[in-house]
Amino acid sequence: MKTGLILMAFVVAFGIARPATAQSVPLVADLSNHLVAITTGFTGTDVLLFGATDGPGDVVIVVRGPATDVTIRRKNRFGPIWANSEAIAMRDVPSFYNVASNRDIAEFTSERIRALYEIGVENLKLKFVEPNQPEETRQTYGDALIRLNTERGLYSPENGKVSLLANRLFRAELHFPANVPTGAYEVGIYLFRNGDVVSGEFVPLIISKTGIGAEVYDFAHNLAPIYGLFAIVIAVLAGWAAEAAFRRT
After folding, report:
1. pLDDT of the chain along its 249 residues, tens only?
2. Same domain, 186 and 165
């Protein structure tokens, strides 16, 4: 019911029910919520993306999390021990990445277009701190990054689903797991026709910690030495209390 009212509001606000004119907007989109608050006990959430087009076409949604610097380490075996042997650093890596579309993207666009707009994890343009890495090394560590983030639920190699209604309205449920990174997200919506992008829109999304969890997080990151000392004191006191309790029994 709520979704239907939201989509109907788009029809009224943007005149989707009227025939398209030369001045019509090819694509409009918005989110049901522009702020995701992470509180104690947060287990993940879904955010509804909805919108409308001025006519038939294919819709692709790309969600990118805040850029971060990442170091990928390779482990080798030295006798009976596994240890890190080498590491590769990357910069401005999306901390979260997901794609959704109304059908298989390969059916309506080319590899060149997908690479141009970085649609799909295989098309992410990873930036290495040392740019002159051999192609084989770049491929190996790039695949490792994607595999690790996929295992964590932060990257999705499979496209999510965009639902089209009457070739004009569309909607998609964007899922964010419990371990989703905080920060400013970029939600890009692309309208495809005849294999190319004819319109695009970017919608901001903020994911932020709130409440006591946010205060502890800020304290731990901004005053790390004091936080570490405080954690040690708490651990010592907890051990002392446990020992005293066992002595009484």
Report:
1. 455 545 544 544 444 444 444 456 899 999 999 999 988 889 999 999 999 999 999 999 999 999 999 998 876 665 566 555 678 899 999 999 999 999 999 999 999 999 999 999 999 999 998 878 888 888 988 999 999 999 999 998 888 899 998 878 999 999 999 999 999 999 999 999 999 999 999 999 999 987 444 444 444 445 456 545 545 655 555 555 555 555 555
2. yes
Question: The domain containing residue 52 runs over which residues?
Answer: 2-209
- Are residue 36 and residue 86 in the same domain, yes or no? yes
Instruction: Give start and end residues of each alpha helix (H) in the chain.
Output: 2-14, 111-116, 135-151, 211-222, 224-248
- Give the tokens for residue 92: 């401005």
Question: Measuring CA to CA, how many Å separate 240 from each of 221, 226, 231, 245, 247?
Answer: 28, 21, 14, 9, 11
218 and 194 within one domain: no
pTM of this structure: 0.74
What is the total count of domains within the chain? 2
- Check whether residue 50 and residue 118 sit in a common domain: yes
